[in-house]
Design brief:
Number of helices: 4
Helix content: 10-25%
Order of helices and strands: EEEEEEHEHEHEHEEE
Number of strands: 12
Shape: globular
Length: 223
């Protein structure tokens, strides 16, 4: 089954569980479990929004105004509505972004410019937080319309699957997006575990056909 990894939008979504910590996940919202030897419940959850100014494709994107508010503020406001997050912080390497975020009341953690991606920036921010957390949710800074329910679904999926180390949300793949490399595709098994991710159409066949609908998720009662 081929689905599209995605974040916000008016779509039915699945929450995928992953068994491999090293899997390459390109999605809007990803929750990671911190692997420890403790068997206690994973109740302490932090949402981290990585934001950098010097994007190669769109410099200054976090500060672009949308109806009078910078994009990063709208993303933060949506994340703050998630019921499962104990704390939300913005991780950045730019003083302009930090000043803006502090201005609207967000907690900010400064991170090195050397971070190669949002995951590394989240990790650097996590190291600087005084409190320890069981689950970290990586929330993309350019998701001003992200649905809090998606964040909660990602968290609850991890809390309900002791063997999973990450979870992410996916939506049905629109036929017109099948060959678009900017749409990350995902193959899942019948239990909702991610098998692999790709920018190409997967699984591929000679007819270039794929299934575009999502059956009811087997863990739907948990969300």
């Amino acid at each position: 089954m081929t689905e599209s990894a995605s974040g916000s939008g008016q779509y039915k979504f699945w929450i995928l569980r992953g068994l491999l910590a090293g899997a390459a996940v390109a999605a809007a919202t990803v929750g990671f479990r911190l692997v420890t030897r403790s068997n206690r419940a994973r109740n302490r959850v932090v949402g981290i929004i990585p934001a950098r100014f010097r994007s190669t494709r769109f410099q200054g994107k976090p500060l672009v105004e949308i109806l009078g508010k910078p994009m990063i503020q709208r993303t933060w406001e949506r994340a703050m509505l998630a019921a499962t997050l104990d704390k939300v912080v913005i991780a950045t390497d730019d003083e302009k972004i930090a000043e803006c975020c502090l201005g609207f009341g967000a907690d900010v953690v400064m991170t090195p410019e050397s971070c190669r991606n949002g995951t590394e920036r989240c990790n650097e921010a996590l190291r600087k937080l005084k409190k320890k957390y069981d689950i970290v949710v990586n929330i993309q800074g350019d998701e001003p319309l992200i649905e809090p329910e998606i964040i909660d679904g990602v968290v609850k999926s991890l809390q309900g699957a002791p063997d999973a180390v990450f979870s992410t949300a996916v939506t049905s793949l629109n036929p017109e997006d099948a060959l678009d490399p900017n749409r990350v595709k995902c193959v899942v098994d019948k239990h909702g575990y991610a098998i692999y991710f790709s920018r190409g159409l997967i699984p591929f066949n000679k007819q270039s056909e794929s299934k575009f609908s999502l059956p009811p998720p087997p863990w739907d009662s948990e969300l």
